[in-house]
Amino acid sequence: MSAVTITAAPAKALPGEGRIGLRANVRHIGALVRRNALQIKQDPESMFDAVLMPIVFTLLFVYVFGGAISGKGNQQAYVNYVVPGLMAMMGMNIAMAVGTGVNDDFKKGVMDRFRSMPIARSSVLIAKIVVEIGRMLVATAVLLGMGFLLGLQIHTSVLELAAAIGLSVVFGASLMWIFILLGLTMKTAQAVQGVAMLVLMPLQFGSSIFAPPTTMPGWLQSFTDYNPLSNLADAARNLINGGPVADSVWMTLGWAAVITAVTAPLAVAKFRKKT
Q1: pTM of the predicted model, to two decimals?
Q2: I need a surface site. Which of 130, 151, 206, 219 has the fewest CB within 10 A?
């Protein structure tokens, strides 16, 4: 008796499959944002870093470094220097959590279920960024609250303070694409965190976030001049304290645009192909 070979006809694509319109894409992003927000509601401990980190860092740097940099008993002047800088630091630390979260979701199989759905691949990643922006705003609010308790003064206006917050959010969102790409590339969440810290530490401490670059060696001053965190810290500082902002703002927006334009397509492509 001869074997009969049955060849299955290739499945036909469903009408409209692969052609997701803008309205549907926005709807998918909204549903995924709600899903991620409900996860935070069910696990409030995931907000500890956004709530506690600004408090710890503000107290630590004001009372440990404030006297050394601004003079003993003159910590209040340092508050107006360091708090705007810490706004840049908050965005970077929150962004790092996105990479570890994406890596962990792949380990749990969550991302595989999303990729099997008829939704745009980018919507999964954009929804994560939207939720992390919310966490970033919470961290910034706590940071400013601590700053006001320690004597932070706004020498400009509420609108310029809002502009400083918005600038920090835009730059922080661009950094999230880097860490998403890192989370999709590295094998474990611990590896993502380890590599991220190797990048974060030189950028944070080799910037104008904590101390004026004039106190640094010449070679380090050159590094801070090209450090995007210095541009963001200087822009936020001048928006709050008064001073020229045009160059720092445009440099920060330029960095954010370049980072997003390069890493966002790479992250989406990696998400599609990751096994």
Answers
A1: 0.83
A2: 219
